[in-house]
Amino acid sequence: MTDRIRVLWLAKGLGRGGAEQLLVNCARHADTSRYEIEVAYVLPWKDALVADLERAGVRVHCLGGPPGRLWPWRLRQLLAERRYDLVHSHMPVPAVAARLLSYGRRAPRLVHTEHNVWERYRRPTRWANALTYRRNDAVVAVSRAVAGTIPASRRRPGEFVHVVHHGPDLGGAPSGPEARASARETLGLPADAVVIGTVGNLTAKKDQAGLLTAFAELRRDHPETALVLIGAGPLEAQLRAQAGDGVVFAGSRSDVPALLPGLDVFTLSSRQEGLPVALMEAMTSGLPSVVTRVGGMPEVLDDGEQGYLVPPGDPAALAAALGRLTEDEGLRERLGAAARERAKSFDVAGAQRSIERVYEQVLRR
């Protein structure tokens, strides 16, 4: 297989985030007879998914380490040494570096995936991204909402954005009564409580503070309800100080698919999103969800069908929607079954094939 096309996936970090997990999911379904895929990342302390990528047969390069400001030079060395045919970037800062460093007759083709709306980026990042964006040979977006935020003036004339809905990779994940009991034991939850859960880094954009406010309101009418926060992040101490009774902080976990059966309702209180893997995992697990109407979430969840959509930054609306599901087991079962059915359209293998078709298009040019 010495004539395989050599591809570098470029990321800022490989911590337990949705965009990073997509790399692992896609690596498991890549056409390795045609593509030799490697991954490079910048932040050495965000390495939780390195082992998963290596188990998928992917060679991983860390560009960071002291002094951290040298990582663009290390990327340049890697590009010269490995002579990739294509570089596929997944976060804007390393993407800018790749665009500036890829020049000359043997320069690799450049593909970039947008995982977030442009408004989320800090101003210097947004400017640098915009000024170099036309160096991309193709752009992929994880949702139509994300694609809609990319300024048309920054794309090449006639170039369109490829929207690819990814999906979770839950093959072999446990389910059923035994899985539910095991998950609840792991999380220290009572067997008979209605449990609401969320998965995500503890950051301002995920707005777990708003979720805690909503949960406190919910507990006034449903005092036996529990809330599980799966994830870690810079706001953990602040959120712990805010949390009242019934809240479990589960930390960053590698076994999220095994914990989902222990939940009755899934929720995301995000102020910004691309298309969260966590929501698609929850729907695949048959959970009804209450999520905010942001990013690509309304593209995969219909209000009142697989769960409820609520405005971002509105704890009262979030509490009301969670309350409807908390007090009605039959409603939870109906919406959960509809979520599982809808999730059959989530196809990580198909998403990777779509990405590889983009590769074929740009490599033919």
From TrEMBL:
Q: Where is the Glycosyltransferase subfamily 4-like N-terminal domain?
A: 17-170
Entry's Pfam families?
Answer: Glyco_transf_4, Glycos_transf_1
Q: Does the keyword Glycosyltransferase apply?
A: yes
Secretion signal span:
none
SUPFAM superfamilies according to UniProt: UDP-Glycosyltransferase/glycogen phosphorylase
Q: Where is the Glycosyl transferase family domain?
A: 183-342
Q: Among its keywords, does the record have Transferase?
A: yes
PANTHER family tied to this protein: BLL3647 PROTEIN, GLYCOSYLTRANSFERASE
Name by which UniProt lists this protein: D-inositol 3-phosphate glycosyltransferase
Annotated source species: Kitasatospora atroaurantiaca
What lineage does the source organism belong to?
Answer: Bacteria, Bacillati, Actinomycetota, Actinomycetes, Kitasatosporales
